[in-house]
Design goal:
Death Domain, Fas, Phosphorylase Kinase, domain 1, Transferase(Phosphotransferase), domain 1, 13 strands, Death_dom, non-specific serine/threonine protein kinase, DEATH-like_dom_sf, serine/threonine-protein kinase
């Protein structure tokens, strides 16, 4: 079956189309050929090979495991040639550069002839990523140099994947599931056509994250059932789902409109930005991104499921939540500060989240916070503000100078974080239209005299560790200073909270 994909489009193991991957699995499952591939050539330890043996389709699990390490189809092709398993090589032949097809006929001797012919034409011939120089080494050693260099070529590690020996097999962990495109050729063609129409493509650095089949995500949410909706926004809808035996949250953008699609393109760009940041900024206080899907009716992002929902839900006591204690509020404030300061300091340039708010702070089963929704995040400059063309974010959490002058800096996140601290300490919403005055929480807090401040305390938090209230409120005031130069960097905020 021809898929229409070429070797330039299908580079990594997890890119293999369903049909070819399925046929390859059939060949390698026969007589347990996969065991030689795993143990002898992929260097997977005996314990893990035995674990794989208990799987219904061990080859598929092996490919999932190896694919998560960003190994390429060419690497697999060469390993199969060393096994002399030409029947398996045929299944992935169309995804390998034609200059390596001769390996199917007579094994690696053909590769030596390919190299020798190339050397006679040019002093330097590139094969894969390896440059072969005519004067070095002798031709008898050249073949081993070339194939070894391809197999040992460093691959960018997946941030979400544990080390090879630590990965549990099957789909029990579900943390980095393989992206096997189960869509039909017609669906894939339509999806590819749609993507070309938007003039947006997923950069190579962001494509390291496995792509999930849209049909699997649809099944995981019971056909996008309304009963599985966790929340809605301008971007689309977030669903709860069970995928790879793991509960996940799936953000599904609205289907592409038939009319003008400027807004759709913006949302798609924001999704790509999330993929880039979350796949390169793994941290205990940043929401893990497991996978993405671009091959179906609508783009989707697959995240870790956070059973306690958002901080906004908890503070509003939605879904039967109990009030947070002061200790829990301190832990949430500390973890959120840790995540933001990590974004601001991890690279040469800071990443500015741009939409810090209680609705984007997600809580796990232990009420530990994780920052989510990086669709508005942008790269900033270490010592200067960035002029942006338009204001993005949530109004009650944005400082006046940003709204007036469109100058973006890390101090925008600091200000937004300060508003979250006000929410944690008072239990009040960042904006409340029912308040007769001071509908914005920042204005409301500023209107109170210092002697009356204790009256703002959220009484539902109890009396134990009440001093947390003042800590959060005063740090919130520090973070929401009118002038950005008077606001602290998040690194200092974290240190302050950590020392309390």
């Amino acid at each position: 079956m021809a898929t229409g994909f070429t070797h330039t489009e299908v580079k990594y193991i997890y890119n293999l189309p369903y049909h070819e991957r399925s046929e390859l699995c059939k060949v390698l499952n026969l007589n347990d050929s996969w065991k030689e591939l795993a143990g002898t050539w992929m260097k997977i330890n005996e314990l893990n090979v035995r674990t794989l043996s208990r799987e219904k389709n061990p080859t598929d699990e092996l490919l999932t495991l190896w694919g998560q390490q960003n190994h390429t189809v060419l690497e697999l092709f060469i390993l199969l040639s060393r096994m002399d398993n030409y029947q398996a090589m045929v299944q992935i032949k169309s995804f390998v550069d034609p200059k390596y097809h001769a390996l199917i006929d007579n094994g690696e001797k053909n590769l030596q002839r390919i190299i020798r012919r190339g050397l006679n034409k040019s002093p330097n011939v590139k094969i894969g990523e390896c440059e072969v120089v005519k004067k070095e080494p002798p031709v008898s050693n050249l073949l081993k140099l070339t194939t070894d260099s391809i197999l040992n070529e460093p691959v960018p590690p997946l941030q979400m994947s544990p080390p090879l020996q630590a990965i549990s097999f099957g789909h029990l962990n579900g943390l980095s599931p393989a992206g096997i495109p189960y869509a039909s050729p017609k669906q894939r063609d339509e999806a590819m056509s749609s993507r070309k129409k938007t003039m947006i493509t997923l950069p190579k650095t962001e494509a390291n994250l496995p792509e999930a089949p849209y049909q699997e995500l649809e099944a995981a949410t019971s056909g996008w059932s309304v009963h599985n909706i966790l929340g809605k926004g301008g971007f689309g809808t977030v669903y709860r789902g069970q995928w790879k035996n793991t509960y996940v949250a799936i953000k599904r953008l609205e289907a592409r409109p038939s009319g003008p699609d400027d807004q759709y393109i913006i949302h798609l760009q924001q999704s790509f930005r999330e993929i880039k940041i979350l796949n390169s900024r793994a941290h205990e206080n940043i929401l893990p991104l497991y996978s993405y899907s671009l091959n179906g009716e609508a783009p989707c992002l697959v995240y870790m499921f956070m059973p306690n929902g958002s901080l906004d839900d908890v503070l509003r006591l939605k879904r039967g939540h109990r009030p947070l204690t002061w200790i829990q509020r301190h832990v949430i404030a500390l973890g959120t500060a840790r995540g933001i300061q990590y974004l601001h300091t991890i690279g040469e340039k800071p990443w500015i989240h741009g939409d810090i708010k209680s609705a984007n702070i997600l809580l796990d089963k232990n009420m530990e916070p994780k920052l989510g929704d990086f669709g508005l995040a942008r790269e900033g400059h270490e010592h200067e503000d960035v002029l942006v063309s338009r204001i993005q974010g949530t109004r009650p959490y944005l400082p006046d100078e940003y709204l007036r002058e469109k100058m973006l800096s890390t101090k925008i996140d600091t200000y937004s974080y300060g508003i979250v601290l006000f929410e944690l300490s008072t239990g009040l919403a960042a904006y409340d239209g029912s308040r007769p005055q001071y509908k914005f929480l920042k204005q409301f807090v500023d209107s109170w005299s210092e002697c009356d401040i204790p009256l703002m305390m959220d009484k539902t938090a109890g009396k134990e560790k009440e001093e947390v209230f003042k800590n959060l409120l005063f740090i919130g005031k520090w973070c929401t200073n009118s002038h950005s130069k008077d606001r602290p960097e998040m690194e200092y905020v974290f240190r302050k909270l950590n020392n309390l």
